Amino acid sequence: MDDIHDIYLCQLSETVSCGACCGLYNLPNLSREKLEILLSNRTKDFESVPRTEDGIFEFQRRNKAPHRLSRPFPQFHHCPFLGLIGGEKWCVGCLLHPAMPGNNGVDYRSLSWYGEMACRTYFCPTTKKLPGVYQSILIVVIDNWYDFGLIVTEHSLLTAYFKEVESRLGRRIAASDYTQNFLAKSAFKEFAELKSKWPYRRHDAPGPCNFFFENGLYPRPDVFRATPDIRLSPYENILRELDSGFSSAKEIEAADQLLDDLFLKAERALM
User: Is 40 found in the same domain as 136?
Assistant: First the structure.
């Protein structure tokens, strides 16, 4: 599955989807619980919105204002039409999509910030830059929209992870390595969760949100070191992609040990 057109990463199941390109995570003080509450309330609010331009634009004004001036990436939009979709409302999606209940098959996405064509045609860099086998592993392993949306846009971080695993194993990995392998899945899930739980994120980082548009607007800086005696890490690329910062040699040693442990788990599970 190396052809990017064979793998669709936007809506996968009743629990797994991605809204990162619509700025889902571009919010201050982000946590899964807060984001779920926001999306749930927004979804309920939209149910009573008249499906007219005036009604939809009024909903947009109500939901856009609270986040307009406090986004981690100010020039990256957060779409106020992101909500929870599906029968059980267990994954994230577009409230303007024609398949949403109440829209009666009408596509209202032309009223959004990006417009209907952008929603139909845009695919993030991961679809081109992350090898198909790694994309397939994501689909096999990640079982919730929150973690999936945070990690799927991180093609450099994912590539560094899987290349390290392959180096330790001395072979290429396949999606089938993970299909029925609980321990391998668990090891990768722990790594993916570092996006939201990384304890060594530098103080000025935007949180777990990632600006993945490759236009140079918000380049990811190198690892921050408070003093020049803090050494380089064998996981330097991973630390950079995790927006790391260190105030002491002890901290970077602890970070390396944390990653060592995760890779050892993956190695043992896949041997």
Answer: no
